Amino acid sequence: MNFENNLEFARDLDTKDELKSFRQKFFIPQHEGKDGVYFTGNSLGLQPKTTAKYVQQELDDWAKLGVEGHFQAKNPWMPYHEIFPKQLAKIVGCKENEVVVMNQLTVNLHLLMVTFYRPDKQRYKIICEAKAFPSDQYAFETQAKYHGFDPSDAVIEVSPRTGEHTLRTEDILSTIQQHGDSVAVVLFGGVNYYTGQLFDIKAINKAAHSGGAYAGFDLAHAAGNVELKLHDWDVDFACWCSYKYLNSGPGGVAGAYIHEKHAANKELPRFAGWWGYKKETRFKMEKGFEAIPTAEGWQLSNAPILSMAAHKAALDIFEEAGVDKLHEKRKLLAGYLYYVLNDINSRQTEKVIEIITPANEEERGCQVSMLMLKRGKEIFDELTKQGVIADWREPNVIRIAPVPLYNSFEDIYRFGEIINSILQ
Q: Cα–Cα–Cα angle for 14, 361, 377, nearest 5°?
């Protein structure tokens, strides 16, 4: 599409947008009595207007029924988690028996590493991207230490080439090949939180398997953002949070995926809890863990119903909108944002913004990261004063992420005008 950086063009795109009505399903933060420009769905998605209703239903049932709500609530709590696989399978591209909603992201990462990171003297290394999200870094470091390995030797980080900001797929694959049979697991983010780069999950996964290693992915910035085909790509395991693109509330319940070839293997080592025990005899309370032969077998505790109710409210909107349509709009939004920023840069006598997110739409999701070459924090603070909610990452990056459910093309045009006025 031939973009134009003007209000008429942006509004024309909004008029033609099949998903434009979904913006009305969310609360938009206000600035001086008008909708602000909210570009931090990559950090915390906005609240659906139905969330309170969904949560209130469970509060009402708790008030009326007490413990009997586990069986008699409108949405019985006992099997509550079972309502999610059908919806999430479409979002992450897997079978229903491969996905489960439970815990928090890093808890799930550790639980999955218990199963898939089982190092020995020969095969003990973890390969990841440099500047992975800190929680992932700490998980890798402490898992290596727990097994008696030095993280400086066991954790191999793939870094961008000198003068570049993102990773080349060939460098990731060659690193995996280089370390060969010393690699236990390859564990990347689906989308890098800092640069917004979408990694080639299929290729990375294939390379890991070729070397005899497992492959897993932290999809915190990918789930609900980019197209995923975890089962078809033969990914071993993955986990994600639900409060970013999935709009399920701060600290919302997280998700995990285990390929069915592993999920059905009840003998795989894991840290067990009673909610992962086979349902038919769970309440006999007997010794000896017997896992559910699906992703549910990694559960520890019964469902956090209030958090899951908020998650359900958000996923119902995803289902109504349609995942394919969301991906189409996401690409158009990010493409327009990229165009507007480049247009602004072209007007400057001296370059102020360097976009470090890949230009190729197949290598990015919603997020576009702006490396500020001058006055970065000053510009960010002024954006905030003018009603733009963006994200600052040290030392000098502004992250912005227009998301298809509630952002408009006019949002992007307005953002561009504000940036332009600040620079002038």
A: 80
Q: Which of 369, 416, 240 is nearest to 315 (CA)?
A: 240
Residue closest to 367 by CA, chosen among 187, 173, 224: 224
Tens of pLDDT, residue by residue over 60-94, are 999 999 999 999 999 999 999 999 999 999 999 99
* One CATH from 3.40.1390.30, 3.40.50.300, 3.30.930.10, 3.90.1150.10 for 7-47+323-423: 3.90.1150.10
Answering whether pTM is above 0.90, one says yes
d(CA 309, CA 326): 22
Cβ 397 vs Cβ 371: under 8 Å: yes
**């469970």: which residue's tokens?**
58
- In the chain, the amino acid numbered 196 is G
Residue 338's CB: how many other CB atoms inside 10 A? 19
pLDDT, tens digit, 9 for 90 and up, residues 34-44: 999 999 999 99
Q: What are phi and psi of 413, to 5 degrees?
A: -60, -45
